Amino acid sequence: xxxxxxxxxxxxxxxxxxxxxRPDVLGDGYEMRYVDQPDDYSGQVRSTIxxxxxxxxxxxxxxxxxxxxxxxxxxxxxDRFVDSCYNFYAVDLxxxxxxxxxxxxxxxVRDMKxxxxxxxxxxxxxxxxxxxxxxxxxxxxxxxxxSLYMASNPDSDIRALILNSPFLDWNLSSFQEKFLVPAxxxxxxxxxxxxxxxxxxxxxxxxxxxxxxxxxxxxxQWKFIVSPDVDxxxxxxxxxxxxMLQNGEDIKIPILLMHSDRSYKKGDDDTxxxxxxxxxxxxxxxxxxxxxxxxxxxxxxxxxxxxxxxxKKNVREALYDYIFKWLDRQGL
Length: 332
Prior knowledge:
single chain; alpha/beta; two-stranded antiparallel sheet; globular
């Protein structure tokens, strides 16, 4: 089993005939298209593929999957891949971001495997565009989803998996994780629509948003400043997904496991939101992330925030440098 730890500072179908690409809200060469997915328990469902093609051409591409209360807006990340000769794709999952439909409950899910069709559609589009060396990348719940996808699709054509602070365990007290979450998960099987509060803090979003002193702009109707309530069905879906991975999986492709060097702790001042993981426990990420496969490179990013690519400039510059060197070592 090959593992290393480093510290870092500072739907298989041809889609071309159906594609209706249009300029994306990000501009600057980004374009998007919707994919109608089969109806589910809430009615009509769609996902969204976003892409920016590299002027280098070539058959290499990255597919990015966002996290909870999120959508793809990290255009600097996409640009860095494109400038390094990787065609860049992202998916806004069903009931998130660009994919939200009127009257739809944001982020609703009953089983994390529901998202596999959204990923399959994006991969089918990439292949239709001539891209057959594909790197899958996921952030937070997107890291959970992409890990589950690879564990469930061992014969996939994906060549490598990059995990940005994957949500592999709850960041809760021992009592909550041992008793409360299983109880809510059980209730969620029979009564999935019961609302579960997420807390009312806006501090993480404010550490990111430019209007509050951060570096970034995003649509606050797609990525809420205060995380909205979820439901018991969402808790069950996350808990079941984490349980599938925590006992160890044999993901056969190389994995780059990335997380901050420390988590935000009670009593830290507000400035620490921008230099720590204010959402997850980095020790849990490390513990369970190292169980995912046989070829894992783990890096602790000094001064990294929860979404590492939104960290301070010196941190993310060092991060990108490492990512591209790691991909080069994988022959990608």
